[in-house]
Design brief:
Oligomer: single chain
Radius of gyration: 18 Å
CATH topology: Phenylalanine Hydroxylase
Strand content: 5-15%
Number of domains: 1
Low-confidence stretches: none
Bound molecules: phenylalanine, cobalt (II) ion
């Protein structure tokens, strides 16, 4: 989501475009297959069961970039969600409105073979491989709709930064505690080979128990691995904590500001699972560690 964007001429009023599935080249389909294969080598035992189940239920590994119409029909039968193509970032109210109506806006372009690991704009691999599987889970699907509705409501407040942080630390970079250990459900992690390992296994980042207000007041990195990951105990916990809370008083208190830096650990308040060394960030992060990746 973002503001002050210009709607391209080929986009509809709701910013959707045709996916143009027939126009993908063999090379573009091959990039999807390569990315899919790389992730499947590392995600079993790291990604949440609900994510792995969604990949299979939608047959996202059948070969090539998925056709949005086909996976939408399957997804709609499961949880009522559909995937719609958009030309990249869309304005906040457009984004929220799609979610509130159980439509997931996805980029249709795919990254090039020479930039498999890092890209700024979400492409079809991030959006579809990363986000869509979790939408097969009924509770997570309801959370995403509730988030969209909350987003529409938040437009009346100076709330966007705080609400965006909630999305960031759950939908994009969330971890979940399971009986088998810590697992990834965040789309930004599961769609990245390097961050999937870093988020679970590296000694650098903090890993802290989910707390709604804590998340909403914590700044985050948009251009590198996270310095803190927040852990939920269940999707029900996430759903209840957000849906049962009236955000209006929170927005009033937070004033659209962050009071915690990405690396902070708050003594006596945080449930600390890992107090990270922050060695990765201190050593200069992505640019300094480019060779190691
Ligand atoms: N309960 C929130 C509100 O009062 C709405 C919301 C639900 C936001 C779920 C995010 C996720 O605005
Ligand atoms: Co995303």
């Amino acid at each position: 989501m973002s503001n002050q964007l210009h709607k391209p001429a080929h986009a509809r009023a709701d910013w959707t475009i045709d996916q143009g599935w027939e126009k993908y080249t063999a090379e573009e389909h091959a990039v999807w297959d390569l990315l899919y294969k790389r992730q499947m080598e590392i995600l079993p035992g790291r990604a949440a069961d609900e994510f792995m189940h969604g990949l299979k239920a939608l047959d996202l590994g059948k070969g090539g970039i998925p056709n949005f119409e086909i996976i939408s029909d399957e997804l709609e039968a499961l949880t009522g969600w559909r995937v719609v193509a958009v030309p990249g970032l869309v304005p906040d109210e457009v984004f929220f409105d799609h979610l509130a109506n159980r439509r997931f806006p996805a980029g249709q372009f795919i990254r090039k073979r020479n930039e498999l690991d890092y890209l700024q704009e979400p492409d079809v691999f991030h959006d579809v491989f990363g986000h869509v599987p979790m939408l097969t889970n009924p509770v997570f699907a309801d959370y995403m709709e509730a988030y969209g509705k909350g987003g529409l409501r938040s437009l009346n407040f100076a709330a966007l930064k705080n609400l965006a942080a909630l999305y960031w630390y759950t939908v994009e970079f969330g971890l979940i505690q399971t009986d088998d250990g810590l697992r990834i459900y965040g789309a930004g992690i599961v769609s990245s080979k390097t961050e999937s390992i870093f988020a679970l296994e590296d000694a650098s980042p903090n890993r802290i128990g989910f707390d709604l207000e804590r998340l909403m007041t914590t700044d985050y990195r948009i251009d590198d691995f996270q310095q803190t990951y927040f852990i939920i105990e269940s999707y029900d916990q996430l759903f209840r904590a957000t849906v049962d809370t009236d955000f209006a008083p929170l927005y009033e208190r937070m004033q659209g500001k962050f009071s915690k830096a990405p690396e902070d650990v708050i003594k006596r308040e945080d449930t600390v699972i890992t107090h990270g060394t922050q060695a990765y960030a201190k050593s200069g992060g992505r640019l300094a560690n480019a060779d190691a990746k």
